[in-house]
Every structure is written in structure tokens, then in C-alpha cells.
Structure to design on (792 residues):
């Protein structure tokens, strides 16, 4: 089995599994309990919090643990009242859906947010602004100019949030360097367990909770902390520098893959190719072959890829990301996402290329003959 | 918790029972240790079966999805529901928030009143207060001295504007079981939704959504020897209960709760539910026996120790006792060989007396000396014996040092004393 769907979820790192198993076997751990078991739980959670703050350049900011990226994005969007919300057209649904009345910032054909458009929207808006733009797109890997976006938004007195779920572990991510006020992180996209994420918030930003109750997480997120998962999250975060070091190798593999495909099929298209992209992600159109058909073919060959975001629960929708980039529906329907991880080998990529070429030739060859 | 092993203060007891590890965990309402069988079921889903259950294009995803669906059935089976009625959440706190705010928001144009109880978990009360700020009317039903609600009061409180009644199944601080079946009968007759926070009841006492006419039920994983970070909300399909989601996004859980489902945690919850279902009669009997032994030795044999909450309608794994004529803090210090809590874990760091005990009419001094003793799956008889001994010897010691106790022994009525200001 060849796994090329790391943007959906990544294998959990053995080091993270080890600390989780240790935390589970250590006994019953509720960090709010004042007895020794409770204090041990508290220590585990606070150590992970410090690790995550350090790794993401967020010393001094609050790391609010949540059940994952989706909840953290919802908290960021719903946690501030009285703001004019602006989000990019290519955000993950966990930003788009809660931001019901948001103004949509368009992207160019390369998938990057148009800064001039943002400036126009900010100028027209007046009042308090809240801008949420992801650092890297989950479907295309396109990296947004978040630093510039933050600077511009701050010039207008606004607040900036960035969903860095897909960027974390693939490019360096620092709250301080990006200059944003809030950041969403998810554990299972970089080798931590599912069921843990965080909203990192600068101290001066007053967020109100979405899930209230026992007053955990500075009163911003009630519920018994998921101690083992948080421990695994912290350890995986600590291992991110190792991931980053390996990104060059991954980039070499991806470049090789894209080159091979394009040299074989001139009409194949890589979406977001001209923009700055994550090293591991490739969104490829195979002309005249619908994504569903490609997925079946690759699955039969033992290769795991996807047609875009994993979430839409079975519904095969045309990607809103590609549509926002001006890709016509028939072409968008032929796109698949390949997302590599640090364990993928050249042999695996060769196999992917072989299956790709074979299917392309079969369908388009028939077409030419007919 | 190997690292907690140390020579006991009560050397003679320790030498009699060499297998006791200190401190003895008696805080099963705060959280429970994971059953090793649950961990075993989870591990493959961290390691080789790590897929995203929403990935529809490859076998890693299908494998994870199949595991999620199996767990959904395991959870549903335990409460007599259909698997289509189970929505996975991050835990009971989220489930409670989702049920109360979600119902409120969905039906707000037609109805604007909800009913809950003063002794509910903080997250239910907070969610209700949140609706109040949005213009809802909320009735907080009082409880009787035994901690149970008065059904007549409930009937009177329901109006044609009432959309939801939220009453917890088993109270986290005092363990009393509310009359769910009777409540469900009333709410069904009056056409009002019935939500129950079953975080402390699910897997411990029999619950059936059909027999009890429950429309929404909050479920927690880590209270039943399953993992933390996972829970569920039961949402009735017939007659259909609709709610506005709390967390929006990728549209997982049929749009009711977005976010990647954490497969290993869900597998753990499912396994924990099945184990609870299989072992419930046996486990209940065992817990009851230990609880009775503890209760008889502590509350019956030591003078001036009182049980909080109804004696009969209760889950035996939760005994909340008040020790008269002792200072609360010295009590906690003296029994530090027992990992116990003075009430809810969420508020256990604060010195405020419990609002649950206060609403039972327990006086402030008594509320300060109240301790919740939790008995669970891994509590042994020798641990109970040890705990009894720890309490017996310390109560005596503390009371001998207490001037109040001395006065009571001399026949002084403490309530009639006028204390000088200081």
C-alpha cells in the first residue's frame, strides 16, 4: 500500500504513541483534580502547552487546546463579536461555514490571495475587521502571503487569524514571524493523534468560549482535557524541525513526479503551480478522466490519494478551491490531490507515475483512435 | 501509578495488605483509568490503521470508517438507540453545550423557554445561562433535600413556550439518580424535548431511550474506562429532534458536528461501551458490595457522618459524606493516602463550598467537610479496608483536637453560641 494522502491525515509518530500509551497507563488523569494523579495530569498538559507555544513562536500567547482544527477555527470565527469578518475564498469549510456573513476575498488564478482586493475590502468596510486567511491550502498547497496580509490588516486596526493546519510541519510557522493574532493548529496532520488541536491566541485578544462549563483552558474551552492526546500532540510538535529538514527531499520527489507527468502528457495541469506551494502537495488534472475514475484506478493499484478535502462525507462536490481559482467545472472534476509524507520513497512515486501514465494513455489513446 | 508507591503511614495495615498502591484512587467521577482492553482495541488505529475515516477514496479511509461505524453501533446498543442517532463529539461537555444551545437556536422562533435543575453540571448551567443572555427564559428547578427533583414542580414549570427539559441522570457530586422515566413521560405528554446529561450514568446503570422517552443524551468516554477527548450525543430521529450545530465545517456527522473523527478514540469509546454493557450487572453488584461495606463502616459506625443525597436512588459508586466537627482542609490533609475530591473536579481547586450541596440545604460548614468517595472497576476490597482504616483513625484524631467536638461532647448546642467577631 502506498500512502499519498498525508494532507487528510498523517501516520502517528512512534514517539507520540509512546507518550500517549504512557499517559494512559499512568492511571486516571484529570488535570482539574487536586490530588497527586490530577497534579501529574496538569503537568503533562502544561508541558505540552509550553512545547507547542515554543515550536510555533508563540511564547507569551495562550495555547487553547481543542478537539482539533475544525473546533479551533470555529472558536476563532465565533469567539469574537462585533467584527466585520473577511475570509478568503479558498479557506477550509471549518472557516467558511461558521463565517456565514463574511466578505469573501478572491484569489488569483494561481490560488494566492490578491492583496489589492483585500485592501479595497478593508478600506470599504470601516468598523472593526477580522481577517482569516489560511497559511497553506489543503488541496493545492498554495502558500498565502500571510505576513503581508497581517501587516495590511493591522494598518486598518483589524485582527488576523490564520489556519496553519496544513502548513505546520511543512514550512516554518511562527506566530511572531507571521505577525498574526491567532493561529489554528491540528495535531493529526503532522504526526500527532486525532482529537487534539489548538487555537493559539495573543494575550491581548479577548475570545469568548463556544463550549462553556467547568472553566478549563482559561475559561475558553470547557471539558476535561484530553491528556494523552495532548501529550502526543506536544511530542509531535517537538519533532517538527525533523519534518522540516526532510522537506527538501520531498520537494525533489514531487518535482520529479510533476515533471514526469507533464513530459508524458502535455495537457496535464498542476493547479497553483506558479505560486509558492508546500513541498509535499500536488493537485493534478488528468485530462478527460474524472477524479472518481482515477481514484478507483489508483486504489486498485494500492495507491491512496484523494480528490480534495477528505471531509465532504461522500458527496462528490466540485472543489470550491479550484472554482475560486477560475478553473472551469469540467476541468476541476479531473483533479486529484497527491500529498506526500516524509516516509515516501522514489520507488513509490515511480509506481504512482506508472499508474497515472497508464490510465491517461488508455483513456486518451482510445479517444484519439475513435 | 507505580511512582506513587511509598511506605504507608499505617505500616501495620500495609504489611497486612502488601498489594495496596498509594494513594488509593477514589475519584472515579472525575475520570477513570483506561481499561487495558480498551487501549488494546485502540492501538492498531494509532499505528497501522491510521486513516482518516472521511477519506472515501482508499482502503485506509474505509477501514477507519468501518471502525467508526462499528463503535457507533456499540454506543447505540447500550442505550437502546439506533446507530443513526449517535453523533460523536469531543466529550460530554461539548455534547451538553451542543444539545442545549443547539435546540435553543433551532427552535428560537417558536419557543423561548427551557427548564433545567440547580444541581446540573456546570456546563449545562453555563449553556442555559448563555441562552438566557440571548433572551431565553430559563427555569432552574430546585431539588429536595435528597437531591431529587419534585415532579410536580416540573409539571408546573412547563408552559407552551417550553422547548427543552434538561435533567441529568446521575449527579456527579452526590450520585443520586433522577427519575428519568417519570420525567420522560411528562415531557413526552407535553410535547417538550427531554435532554439528559448521562456522563455519570452511561455504562453504569441501565438506560433506554425508548422506555425513558429521552430525546437527547450526553455521553462521555473517560468516565467509563474509555479514552478522554471523546463523547457522543444521542439525538432522536423519530419523532425527529433537530438542532443547530455548534461546530461547522466539513459536514461530518451528517452536518451536526464537523471535524475529523478521531478514529482511535471512537474505537475506544465503542469498546468501553461494549465492556460496560457486558459486565454491568456483575460490576454493579461488586461496586454495591464495596460501597455498602464502606458506608456501613464509615457513616454508620463513626458518629456524626452524614450521607449527602438520597440513600436509595443512587449509584453506589459515589458516596458523598459530610464529617461534622472537623475542618475541611485538615481532613483532606489527613487522608492524603486517598485520592478523593470534595466535589466536582472542575471546581475542586476553589475553596467555595459546592453549589450542589448548598442547594440540598447542606449548611456551609458541613459542605466544607464533605468528601466524595468514588468506587469503580479497579477498586479492590483491600483498598476499601485500608480507606476505612485511614478515615476511622484520622477522624478520631482530628476530633480530639477540635474544640467544637469537645463542646458538643459536653452538650453545648453550637448553633446557639454567639461567636465574638475577630
Amino acid at each position: 500500500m502506498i500512502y499519498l494522502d498525508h494532507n487528510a491525515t498523517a501516520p502517528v509518530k512512534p514517539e507520540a504513541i509512546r507518550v500517549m500509551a504512557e499517559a494512559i497507563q499512568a492511571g486516571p488523569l484529570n488535570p482539574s483534580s487536586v490530588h497527586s494523579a490530577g497534579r501529574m495530569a496538569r503537568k503533562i498538559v502544561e508541558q505540552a502547552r509550553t512545547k507547542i507555544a515554543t515550536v510555533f513562536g508563540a511564547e507569551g500567547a495562550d495555547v487553547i487546546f481543542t478537539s482539533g482544527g475544525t473546533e479551533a477555527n470555529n472558536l476563532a470565527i465565533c469567539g469574537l463579536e462585533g467584527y466585520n469578518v473577511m475570509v478568503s475564498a479558498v479557506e477550509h469549510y471549518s472557516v467558511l461555514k461558521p463565517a456565514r456573513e463574511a466578505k469573501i476575498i478572491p484569489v488569483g488564478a494561481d490560488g494566492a490571495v490578491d492583496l489589492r482586493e483585500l485592501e479595497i475590502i478593508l478600506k470599504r468596510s470601516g468598523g472593526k475587521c477580522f481577517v482569516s486567511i489560511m497559511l497553506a491550502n489543503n488541496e493545492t498547497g498554495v502558500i498565502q502571503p500571510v505576513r503581508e496580509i497581517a501587516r495590511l490588516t493591522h494598518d486598518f486596526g483589524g485582527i488576523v487569524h490564520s489556519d496553519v493546519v496544513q502548513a505546520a510541519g511543512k514550512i516554518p510557522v511562527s506566530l511572531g514571524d507571521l505577525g498574526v493574532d491567532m493561529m489554528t493548529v491540528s495535531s493529526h496532520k503532522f504526526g500527532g493523534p486525532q482529537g487534539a488541536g489548538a487555537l493559539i491566541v495573543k494575550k491581548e485578544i479577548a475570545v469568548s468560549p463556544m463550549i462553556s462549563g467547568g472553566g478549563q483552558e482559561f475559561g475558553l474551552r470547557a471539558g476535561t482535557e484530553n491528556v494523552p492526546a495532548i501529550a502526543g500532540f506536544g511530542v509531535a510538535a517537538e519533532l517538527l524541525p525533523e519534518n522540516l529538514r526532510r522537506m527538501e527531499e520531498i520537494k525533489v520527489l514531487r518535482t520529479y513526479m510533476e515533471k514526469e507527468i507533464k513530459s508524458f502528457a502535455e495537457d496535464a495541469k498542476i493547479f497553483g503551480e506558479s505560486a509558492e506551494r508546500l513541498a509535499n502537495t500536488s493537485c493534478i488534472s488528468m485530462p478527460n478522466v474524472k477524479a472518481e475514475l482515477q481514484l478507483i484506478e489508483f486504489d486498485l493499484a494500492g495507491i491512496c490519494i484523494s480528490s480534495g478535502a477528505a471531509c465532504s462525507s461522500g458527496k462528490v462536490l466540485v472543489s470550491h478551491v479550484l472554482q475560486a481559482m477560475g478553473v472551469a467545472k469540467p476541468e476541476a472534476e479531473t483533479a486529484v490531490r497527491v500529498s506526500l509524507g516524509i516516509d515516501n520513497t522514489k520507488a513509490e512515486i515511480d509506481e504512482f507515475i506508472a499508474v497515472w501514465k497508464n490510465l491517461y494513455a488508455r483513456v486518451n489513446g482510445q479517444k484519439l483512435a475513435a | 501509578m507505580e511512582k506513587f508507591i511509598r511506605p504507608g503511614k499505617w505500616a501495620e495495615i500495609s504489611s497486612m495488605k502488601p498489594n495496596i498502591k498509594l494513594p488509593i484512587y477514589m475519584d472515579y467521577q472525575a475520570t477513570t483509568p483506561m481499561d487495558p482492553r480498551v487501549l488494546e482495541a485502540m492501538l492498531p488505529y494509532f499505528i497501522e490503521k491510521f486513516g482518516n475515516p472521511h477519506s472515501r477514496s482508499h482502503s485506509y479511509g474505509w477501514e477507519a470508517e468501518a471502525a467508526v461505524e462499528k463503535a457507533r453501533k456499540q454506543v447505540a446498543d447500550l442505550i437502546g438507540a439506533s446507530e443513526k442517532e449517535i453523533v460523536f463529539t469531543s466529550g460530554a461537555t461539548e455534547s451538553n453545550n451542543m444539545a442545549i444551545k443547539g435546540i435553543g437556536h433551532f427552535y428560537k422562533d417558536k419557543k423561548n423557554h427551557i427548564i433545567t435543575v440547580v444541581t446540573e453540571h456546570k456546563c449545562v448551567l453555563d449553556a442555559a445561562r448563555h441562552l438566557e443572555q440571548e433572551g431565553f427564559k430559563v427555569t432552574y428547578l430546585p431539588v429536595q433535600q435528597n437531591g431529587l427533583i419534585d415532579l410536580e414542580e416540573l409539571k408546573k414549570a412547563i408552559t407552551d413556550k417550553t422547548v427543552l427539559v434538561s435533567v441529568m441522570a446521575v449527579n456527579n457530586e452526590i450520585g443520586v439518580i433522577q427519575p428519568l422515566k417519570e420525567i420522560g413521560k411528562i415531557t413526552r405528554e407535553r410535547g417538550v424535548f427531554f435532554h439528559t446529561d448521562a456522563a455519570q450514568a452511561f455504562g453504569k446503570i441501565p438506560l433506554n431511550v425508548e422506555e425513558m422517552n429521552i430525546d437527547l443524551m450526553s455521553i462521555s468516554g473517560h468516565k467509563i474506562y474509555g479514552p478522554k477527548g471523546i463523547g457522543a450525543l444521542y439525538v432522536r430521529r423519530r419523532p425527529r429532534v433537530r438542532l443547530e450545530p455548534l461546530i461547522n465545517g466539513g459536514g461530518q456527522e451528517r452536518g451536526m458536528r464537523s471535524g475529523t473523527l478521531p478514529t482511535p478514540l471512537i474505537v475506544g469509546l465503542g469498546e468501553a461501551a461494549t465492556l460496560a454493557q457486558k459486565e454491568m450487572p456483575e460490576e454493579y453488584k461488586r461496586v454495591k458490595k464495596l460501597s455498602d461495606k464502606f458506608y456501613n463502616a464509615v457513616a454508620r459506625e463513626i458518629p456524626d457522618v452524614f450521607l449527602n443525597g438520597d440513600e436509595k436512588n443512587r449509584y453506589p459508586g459515589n458516596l458523598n459524606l459530610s464529617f461534622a466537627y472537623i475542618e475541611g482542609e485538615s481532613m483532606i490533609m489527613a487522608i492524603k493516602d486517598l485520592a478523593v475530591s470534595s466535589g466536582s473536579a472542575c471546581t475542586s481547586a476553589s475553596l467555595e463550598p459546592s453549589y450542589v450541596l448548598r442547594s440540598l440545604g447542606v449548611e456551609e460548614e458541613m459542605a466544607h467537610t464533605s468528601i466524595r468517595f468514588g468506587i469503580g472497576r479497579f477498586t479492590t476490597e483491600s483498598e476499601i479496608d485500608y480507606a476505612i482504616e485511614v478515615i476511622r483513625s484520622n477522624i478520631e484524631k482530628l476530633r480530639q483536637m477540635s474544640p467544637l467536638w469537645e463542646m458538643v461532647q459536653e452538650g453545648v448546642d453550637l448553633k446557639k453560641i454567639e461567636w465574638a467577631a475577630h
